[in-house]
Specification:
Length: about 425
C-alpha cells in the first residue's frame, strides 16, 4: 500500500464519520473533503473543479428547475386525481404509479431523468392524500433505480458490444461473447422482483413522517387549480414535454441529456413560467454540493489506486476454482460497497477488467461475473454519494442517512441473493 492510498483511505473514513456522526451540513462536509483531497495530493485541482460541471450534477440541478415549473400547472393535480380515481387509495395509487414508471424504464433508461419527470406528480399525490412525501419518494425512486432492465433499445442496445469490448481489450481467452439480449435476460427477472417488493413491503416500511423537516414544502390538498395564466400554462406543458422527448430520444438524435434539461430550465425562466428566485430555490444546493464532493472522492479512489487495490485483494482471495455463486457474490459485494461512494459507471469500469483477468487466470467464463459487477453497481442507494438520484429523493422525502440505511438494506439483500443466484444459474462460470 502506497502512502497516497493510505491518506486517501483515511480521508474517505473521515468523510463517512463526519456524515454519520455530526450535524454539519452534508454539502459543506463534502466540499471540505474535496479540498482536503486536493491539498494532500490525492486529487489534482483541475479534476476537482471539473466535478462542478459533471453531467449528472447539471442534470440534477436543471431537471429540478424543469420539475418546479411543471409542478405549477393544472395537469399535475389532474394526473394525481386520475390516479386516485382509478386506484381508490393512497397505497394503490403509489402501486399504479410504480407500474407506469416501470414501463417508462423500457424507453428511458436513465434514472435521473425519470425521477425528475415523476417528482412533481409524486408530490401532488402526497398533497392530495394528505400524506408525507417520505412515504412515497424512496419506494418509487429506488424502484426506478432497480428497474433499469437494459432492454435493447437506444443506449442499452449496445451494452452487449461494450461488454465484448471489455473482453477483447483484456485479452480474454475463454472464447465466449455476449449476444444482444443477454444483458436484458440478466436483469429483467430481478427488476420484476424489485417492483413487487416496493409495491408491497417497500411502501409499508417507508416512514410516515420525514426524519428531516421539509421546510420547502407546504402540504395541502392539491386540486385542479393552476398557478399560471393560460399562456404560461401551455408553455410549461410544451417545455416539459420537449424535455421528456429529448431525454427519451437522446441516444438517437445525438443530443446529450444534460443539454435537454438545461435548455428546459432556461426556457422555464425566459417564458415567465418561473421567476429567477423560484428557479434558484428549486435547486437543492446542499445536496448538489454533497454529490460534487462525492464525485471527487470517487475519482480520488480511482486515481490513487485504492479501488483497484480493494478489487485485486478480493480477486486474489477467491482461490483457484470458486463456485459460480461464490465468485459472483464476491465481486457483487465489492461493487455494491464501492458504488456507494463512486459513480456507478466508474465503479463498473474499474472492476470489470479485474473480474475478466480473474476469470482468465482461473480458466472460467467471464460473462456472469461481468453482469454481476454491472448489476451490483446499480444497487446504489445507501448514501447520498451513491448516485445523483439519492439527493433528489432526500430533498423530496426529507430523508437522512439513517433512514436511507433502514429502508435500503431489505431490497439490497433481496436483490443481491436473487441476482447472484439467477446469474449463477443462467450464466455459470464453469461449463
Amino acid at each position: 500500500m502506497t502512502p497516497l492510498i493510505a491518506i486517501n483511505i483515511a480521508i474517505w473514513l473521515l468523510m463517512l464519520l463526519l456524515i454519520a456522526f455530526t450535524k454539519w451540513d452534508y454539502g459543506v462536509i463534502a466540499i471540505g473533503i474535496m479540498m482536503l483531497l486536493v491539498l494532500t495530493g490525492c486529487l489534482d485541482a483541475n479534476t476537482a473543479l471539473s466535478k462542478f460541471a459533471d453531467t449528472n450534477v447539471i442534470m440534477m440541478a436543471t431537471m429540478m428547475i424543469v420539475a418546479k415549473g411543471f409542478g405549477k400547472t393544472r395537469l399535475v393535480g389532474n394526473i394525481a386525481s386520475l390516479l386516485f380515481k382509478v386506484s381508490g387509495t393512497f397505497e394503490n395509487c403509489l402501486r399504479l404509479f410504480m407500474i407506469i414508471a416501470f414501463a417508462l424504464g423500457f424507453v428511458l433508461s436513465g434514472a435521473i431523468g425519470r425521477i425528475a419527470i415523476v417528482y412533481p406528480i409524486i408530490l401532488a399525490i402526497c398533497e392530495k392524500s394528505g400524506k408525507s412525501p417520505s412515504k412515497a419518494m424512496f419506494p418509487i425512486g429506488i424502484m426506478m433505480l432497480c428497474d433499469q432492465t437494459g432492454f435493447p433499445m437506444g443506449g442499452p442496445a449496445i451494452t452487449y458490444a461494450k461488454y465484448n469490448g471489455f473482453l477483447e481489450s483484456a485479452g480474454y481467452t475463454y472464447g465466449d461473447s455476449f449476444s444482444i439480449f443477454e444483458p436484458f435476460i440478466a436483469r429483467v427477472p430481478i427488476c420484476i422482483i424489485m417492483l413487487v417488493y416496493f409495491m408491497t413491503i417497500g411502501i409499508k416500511i417507508a416512514p410516515d413522517t420525514p426524519p428531516v423537516p421539509l421546510k420547502s414544502l407546504e402540504l395541502k390538498a392539491r386540486g385542479t387549480e393552476s398557478q399560471l395564466d393560460h399562456k404560461r400554462e401551455v408553455l410549461a406543458y410544451s417545455i416539459f414535454i420537449l424535455v421528456c422527448v429529448g431525454l427519451i430520444t437522446a441516444d438517437f438524435i445525438g443530443i446529450p441529456q444534460w443539454m435537454c434539461t438545461t435548455c428546459g430550465a432556461v426556457l422555464m425562466y425566459l417564458t415567465g413560467v418561473l421567476t429567477f428566485k423560484e428557479g434558484v430555490n428549486a435547486i437543492p444546493f446542499s445536496l448538489v454540493w454533497l454529490f460534487i464532493g462525492a464525485l471527487a472522492m470517487g475519482t480520488a479512489l480511482l486515481q490513487t489506486g485504492t479501488g483497484h487495490l480493494i478489487g485485486s485483494l478480493i480477486a486474489g482471495a477467491l482461490g483457484e476454482h470458486p463456485s459460480s455463486f461464490v465468485l459472483y457474490m464476491a465481486f457483487w459485494l465489492v461493487t455494491m460497497f464501492l458504488t456507494q461512494f463512486m459513480n456507478n459507471g466508474a465503479t463498473a469500469n474499474m472492476l470489470i477488467p479485474i473480474a475478466i483477468l480473474t476469470c482468465n487466470t482461473i480458466g472460467c467464463s467471464a460473462k456472469g461475473v461481468i453482469m454481476a459487477v454491472q448489476n451490483a453497481s446499480l444497487t446504489s442507494w445507501f448514501l447520498p454519494s451513491a448516485t445523483a438520484v439519492i439527493p433528489i429523493l432526500m430533498e423530496g422525502g426529507g430523508y437522512n442517512i439513517k433512514s436511507l440505511l433502514k429502508q435500503g438494506w431489505p431490497p439490497a439483500l433481496i436483490k443481491t441473493v436473487c441476482s447472484v443466484a439467477w446469474l449463477a444459474f443462467m450464466f455459470p462460470a464453469w461449463a
